[in-house]
UniProtKB/TrEMBL annotation, chain A:
Protein kinase domain: residues covered: 15-298
PROSITE patterns named among the record's database cross-references: PROTEIN_KINASE_ATP, PROTEIN_KINASE_DOM, PROTEIN_KINASE_ST
SMART domains attached to this UniProt entry: S_TKc
Compartments, record wording: Nucleus
Enzyme class: transferase
Region feature Disordered, mapped onto this chain: 290-333
Record-level GO BP terms: cell division; positive regulation of transcription elongation by RNA polymerase II
InterPro entries: CDK (IPR050108), CDK7 (IPR037770), Kinase-like_dom_sf (IPR011009), Prot_kinase_dom (IPR000719), Protein_kinase_ATP_BS (IPR017441), Ser/Thr_kinase_AS (IPR008271)
EC numbers, comma separated: 2.7.11.23
Principal cellular location given in the protein's record: nucleus
Keyword terms: ATP-binding, Cell cycle, Cell division, Kinase, Nucleotide-binding, Nucleus, Phosphoprotein, Serine/threonine-protein kinase, Transferase
Family per similarity comment: Belongs to the protein kinase superfamily. CMGC Ser/Thr protein kinase family. CDC2/CDKX subfamily.
The name this protein goes by in its record: [RNA-polymerase]-subunit kinase
From TrEMBL, chain B:
Protein name (Swiss-Prot/TrEMBL): RNA polymerase II transcription factor B subunit 3
One Pfam family in the UniProt entry: MAT1
Signal peptide: none
GO biological process entries: nucleotide-excision repair; regulation of transcription by RNA polymerase II
One GO location term (cellular component): transcription factor TFIIH holo complex
Top-level taxon of origin: Eukaryota
Organism: Paraglomus brasilianum
Any one GO molecular-function label of the UniProt entry: zinc ion binding
InterPro entries (alphabetical): MAT1/Tfb3, MAT1_centre, Znf_RING, Znf_RING/FYVE/PHD, Znf_RING_CS
Keyword annotations from UniProtKB, A to Z: Coiled coil, Metal-binding, Nucleus, Zinc, Zinc-finger
Main location: nucleus
Occurrences of domain RING-type (ranges): 37-80
Amino acid sequence: MSHLTEDDSTIERKYVKEKKIGEGTYAVVYQGKEAATGRKVAIKKIKLGQSQAGVNGIELSAIREVKSLQELQHPNIIELIDIFSHKTNLNLVLEYLDSDLEMIIKDKNIVFMSSDIKSWMLMTLRGLDHCHKNWILHRDMKPNNLLVGKDGQLKLADFGLARDFGDPMAKNMSTQVVTRWYRAPELLFGAKQYGYAVDMWSVGCIFAELMLRVPYLPGETDIEQLDLMFRALGTPTEEDWPGFNELTQMKFQKYPKTPLKALFTAAGNDTLDLLEKMLNYDPNKRLTTREALNHPYFRNKPRPTPPGKLPKQEKSNHLNEPVSPSSSSASPY
Amino acid sequence: MSVRSSTTAKSTPKKLSSNGINRQGETPSNDNADEVCPICKNNRYLSPDMKLLVSECYHKMCESCIDRLFANGAGPCPICGQIVRKVNFAIATFEDLLVEKEIKIRKRIAHHFNKRQEDFPSLKEYNDYLEEVEKIAWNLINGISLEETEAKIKAYQQENHDLIAANAQRMLQEEKLAKLVEEQELKEKQSEFEKYQKTLEEERKMKATLKDEFIEELRSSKQTADHSASTSLDIASSGVGMWLGLDREHLDDSMKDYNPAATEYADVDGYTLREKYYDPFTEVLGLSKTGGFNIKFVHERALQAAFSGICDV
């Protein structure tokens, strides 16, 4: 990244802001382009000094985002092109993508083939695998944060909640992460130390959503979220999830386990096996990204659709890099 | 006007009990072939277009008789002799003319006697009032002491002029409100209907795209129609959202030899992660495994950092 050697105003002059495309709690996103090449970019202007919770006036999510994205360079992760400050604002120059998976799922004119779903899953897992290999948790995996470019490439975005994992000193990791519908059971039960498995649960929910075309577990409250989860997957027992009984004092209605086949009638056995292993209650048994990528599902036919051939929206006017307000309630760790 | 005369009208086809209510409860159908105009004796069998109208004195006669009798303005009713006009003949809403008459009278009474319960100090007085109104209506309907009753109405009207007007006003307002509510409901229903139409339209479009895609597939596919047909069967049986058990594989072979687990970067290697390490430091922290934290993360991360030469712990 060139900003290490150039000063702020030099970098700033390289980019032209064109129009505002979105605003979140801590940032405004503009569409713009690189003056020299005409390459479309998204400029995320972070408002400084807005929150007292920020470190030295900089919002924590901004630090998380910069920290993570500087480390991660991968075809399935959004690229942080440049950073510059202007007056009291911090500006992140990000790759511009004009659609996201949520819009594609919601667009009822698009018909999904199983090979399309496999392709999106493959790209999601590859991006996430790169995060996890670098010991970074995304912690806000949802279709809305999986951007899709014109070339069909899917990229993980919005690292505002990302942090590292596998640090023994981090004894009190926030449980208020991940948008509720995609939140893993251990987070809902308030586990203070967790790992890669929280992201994998979200991916499982996204996988199910790709097949159902509606959110899989759309709970209105945390309690309802658990109830929905137990209804769908059965209430976990100490056997399913060692330590479960110590995790909560709450008593839950006992729902029996229903085979996934009942809801996902068109899915093949390999598909269901992968989904079931992603939605394993015990986070220690939940698949890692690597295990998921090596699952027979990705080797069996049909082959994933090449990104360029994936169905696209006819017309899109997407706001790049959505600043998700629904999950920005993270507290500092 | 006389009630009795109406029972003599031949067009009233059934016998009426003395209280004016048709006990048999049967209504002859409009296309009754026996229907006869009491004046010219023309019947429906001979002229199916015959239209029987009702006079203000509640006597039926056919249109051509009315035209003939009252061509020169008002004249006496050929049945009861009351002076009637052509314009006041109307199509009967009810087959039974007594019902027709009673409704008309009750409408008129309700117009004047529009007091409500809240206008009375007690329920008993309200009931007495209702009783009185009923008596007046009864007298009018059955033609009992007509003049006396009319006088009563007039006296009441003068006495309660203000209240009647006020109540009428109130009623009007309530009607307006009811109408507004009704309109609102209608609007809602309409928008619901439009929504439904939209979903239908979307579904139709979806099906069309499906079909197009299927045809496109048939066209570009090297496989036999049988195979395609069987995959299209999957569509029908899927039932889950709009996800299809189809694949686009034959469209492109570029994904034929791919490794799903291929990564962009080589993994850090040169070490073997052991099941257990001597690690008193982490042990004392008392980390819980239930939430998905694994002590192996710590060890592997340390090893990776060491082996990639950027140990920052």
